[in-house]
Amino acid sequence: MSVAGINVMVDETRARMGQADIQAGQGPLLSVRGVSAYYGSIRALKNVDIDVHEGEIVALIGANGAGKSTLMMTIFGQPQAREGTITFAGQDITKLPTHEIARLNLAQSPEGRRIFSRMTVRENLQMGAAVNGGKHFAEDLERMCTLFPRLRERIDQRGGTMSGGEQQMLAIARALMSRPRLLMLDEPSLGLAPLVVKQIFSAVRDLNAREGLTVFIVEQNAYHALKLAHRGYVMVTGAVTMSGTGQALLDDPQVKAAYLEGGSH
Ligand SMILES: Nc1ncnc2c1ncn2[C@@H]1O[C@H](COP(=O)(O)OP(=O)(O)OP(=O)(O)O)[C@@H](O)[C@H]1O
Ligand SMILES: [Mg+2]
Fold first, then answer.
1. What are the residue boundaries of the structural domains of the chain, listed by start?
2. Residue 218 CA: which ligand 1 atom is closest?
3. In terms of DSSP bridges, do strands 83-88 and 91-92 run parallel, antiparallel, or are they unpaired?
């Protein structure tokens, strides 16, 4: 059965991807264990288990309303997990308030590119750098302008007047300004033209390959996300139903039927 095949792939991948962690005697960088979260009495996450190892790109795919953004927000403490445990870099963050989680070395670019629309590109990036005290600002500004040359051209333009793709680049660059160990992206491809999606995904791939940046990406665009990711998880109505390497999930008939037909590639 395909699900079993997928699980075997997971074990193999874990063995490979997690080797450095295991040798160093460390667990995953991010670990979500048995997490449930609620909106009032509605259980939006059901016993979710997800691991992200140092150096990996991990994708979470699922339909509208599956609970993907809720998981990302729960990792950031809003809503808090009512059951289960979330650890980051060995620290239990399950009950930490959001502002304390934001001070750790994980950064998110939330759904809907929430940039500061009245601030310029440079000011938005300054806000991102402020999380770690604004150290390395000039150097990191240069890095972001090299990663996304469009930002250099628009450096003094107000965020709110930029195009959707430019705003997405800015949202990701702002998150990166804090030099996170883990970058969490919620739907970076939403509403963007295929060429812009390609640019953004290739920037993420480069950061991972060159700098070893660990990435957890939430996407409805399953094809691109699974192509990019080392491993992926599928979420259906708040529960993880499948996991495996990006390629194994791309090849899986159930994933194909549910998320790839009429493909977005
Ligand atoms: N603040 C909230 N209050 C009550 N219910 C909520 C709230 N936010 C989300 N939900 C519900 O929780 C469920 C999961 O929503 P969530 O936004 O996590 O889905 P998603 O997988 O990110 O979907 P999409 O792909 O559309 O972004 C949905 O049924 C949604 O209506
Ligand atoms: Mg969402």
1. 2-105+181-259, 114-180
2. 22
3. antiparallel
